[in-house]
Amino acid sequence: MNRIAKVIVDVPARQVDRPFDYLIPTELLDIIQVGTRVSVPFGNRKVQGFVVAIQAEADTDKLKEIDSAMDILPVLNQELLELGDWIASDTLSFRVSVYQAMLPPALRAKYEKYFIRLNDSDEELERLFGGYGTLDFKKAEQVGLLPQFKKYLQDGDIEIGYAVKNKVTQKKNENGAL
């Protein structure tokens, strides 16, 4: 069984511009695919990364687990990953920087994800969404719905929406007024 993910971590430094092995937790086996963004422990912090390969065996026995999947469906396909590798080697860029440049702006900004129910006639979806038209991604992840929702996404019964957080800085005068 393929339970090891090779992850390029979001640490733009030459010595870490290579894949690191992480154990895929059982609850994420159906979610993690090549091209998926994940959150992983790296040193004493958590960082984002891109899964670039999945395999059965690791180079070492001491593996950390992937913390969470940031996406249900991959954001980069195999062709984009290969293009990113070529661009990185040809321009001497970091692989993670090239992969991030390939993402749409909404995925690079601070945002909240949520599921949108498109099929109003499915009783199971009605129950899972609690009668609402949307469901917070984090809440769905906490209660273990991501594997189930992956199938609904692929069938077109639900979709993922993004609420981009806008950091607007307003200039104030010396009295604190706008």
Write structural notes for this entry:
The chain has 178 residues and is α+β, with helices and mostly antiparallel strands. It has 2 domains: 4-103, GIY-YIG endonuclease (3-Layer(aba) Sandwich); 107-164, no CATH class. The chain contains 6 helices and 8 strands, in the order βββββαααβαβααβ. The strands form 2 sheets. Strands 2-1-4-3-5 form a 5-stranded antiparallel sheet. It has a 3-stranded antiparallel sheet with strand order 7-6-8. α1 packs across α2 (95-101). The longest helix has 14 residues, at 78-91. It is globular. The model has no long low-confidence stretch (mean pLDDT 86). Residues 6-104 form the Primosomal protein N' 3' DNA-binding domain. It comes from Listeria floridensis FSL S10-1187. Keywords: ATP-binding, DNA-binding, Nucleotide-binding.
- CATH domain class name of the largest domain: Alpha Beta
Radius of gyration: 19 Å
Give, in spatial order, the strands making up the sheet with the most strands: 2-1-4-3-5
Classify the secondary structure makeup into a structural class: alpha+beta
What is this structure's SSE topology?
Layout: E1 4-9, E2 20-23, E3 37-42, E4 45-55, E5 68-69, H1 78-91, H2 95-101, H3 105-108, E6 111-117, H4 123-128, E7 134-136, H5 137-142, H6 146-155, E8 158-164
Antiparallel strand pairs: 1-2, 1-4, 3-4, 3-5, 6-7, 6-8
Helix pairs in contact: 1-2
InterPro entries: PriA_3primeBD (IPR041222), PriA_3primeBD_sf (IPR042115)
Protein name: Primosome assembly protein PriA
Domain Primosomal protein N' 3' DNA-binding: 6-104
